[in-house]
């Protein structure tokens, strides 16, 4: 019963948030939303250029993952009416991401850890790709960053979160750099895909943080 409810919640969140972001999620959307989605797709043509212009200068990037030299880059941010501590609790509880973030699947933290922590390693699927990730930066309630790679290969992606208290809530920034042929091919196929996916991640993180 609980599993069915989780599945229903995921579908409801994906549809509601997807429409709000004009993120294509199926034929159930109205014609007006389809038009908005078409307009959004046109705006995403220069997403990487715009993201580089808007990126946060407060992010800590490891050697070899400079946004200025990236083959793929995305910058997203969103204000949340929740404390950074509450938002943080959902980010590090990675095994539960699939319950509220539809672009994640089969998240498994290795070594029996209950949540992400310094140097933690986890395996998951996102954007249809099976990945292994290793936490590189961990500052509780403020910063977390991890490498992403196919198991047994060198890191090709670096994803980072920066949480900044703002008023009574939290400004959440998430940036990602991709390097190498795989990242370049991903960008060539759909330059705005990562940006849209992370918009969805932030929107659903906002939903779960403000409601629980």
What is the averaged pLDDT score? Answer: 84
Give the strand content. 25-35%
User: What is the subunit organization of this protein?
Assistant: single chain
Spatial order of the strands in the main sheet? 1-7-6-5-4-3-2
Gross geometry: globular
Question: The CATH topology, please?
Answer: Alpha-D-Glucose-1,6-Bisphosphate, Chain A, domain 4
Q: Count up the helices.
A: 7
Quantity of strands, as a count: 7
Biggest sheet details: 7 strands, antiparallel
Helix content: 25-40%
Secondary structural class = alpha+beta
Structural overview:
The protein is of the alpha+beta class and 212 residues long. The chain is built from seven helices and seven strands. It has helices spanning 2-20, 31-43, 47-54, 84-92, 97-100, 181-189, 193-211; strands at 72-80, 104-109, 121-126, 129-139, 143-149, 157-166, 169-178. A hairpin with a 3-residue loop joins strand 4 (129-139) and strand 5 (143-149). Helix 4 packs across helix 7. 34% of the residues are buried.
């Amino acid at each position: 019963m609980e599993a069915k409810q989780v599945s229903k919640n995921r579908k409801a969140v994906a549809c509601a948030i997807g429409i709000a972001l004009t993120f294509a999620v199926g034929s159930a959307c109205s014609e007006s939303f389809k038009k908005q989605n078409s307009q959004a797709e046109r705006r995403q043509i220069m997403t990487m250029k715009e993201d580089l212009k808007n990126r946060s200068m407060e992010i800590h990037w490891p050697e070899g993952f400079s946004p200025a030299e990236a083959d793929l880059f995305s910058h997203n941010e969103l204000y949340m009416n929740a404390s950074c501590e509450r938002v943080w609790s959902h980010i590090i509880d990675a095994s539960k991401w699939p319950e509220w973030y539809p672009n994640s699947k089969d998240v498994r933290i290795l070594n029996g850890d209950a949540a992400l922590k310094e140097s933690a390693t986890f395996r998951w699927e996102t954007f249809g790709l099976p990945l292994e990730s290793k936490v590189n930066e961990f500052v509780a309630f403020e910063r977390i960053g991890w490498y992403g790679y196919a198991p047994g290969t060198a890191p090709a992606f670096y994803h980072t979160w920066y949480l900044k208290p703002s008023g009574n809530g939290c400004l959440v920034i998430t940036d990602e750099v991709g390097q190498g042929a795989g990242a370049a091919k991903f960008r060539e196929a759909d330059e705005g895909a990562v940006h849209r996916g992370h918009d969805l991640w932030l929107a659903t993180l906002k939903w779960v943080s403000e409601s629980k």
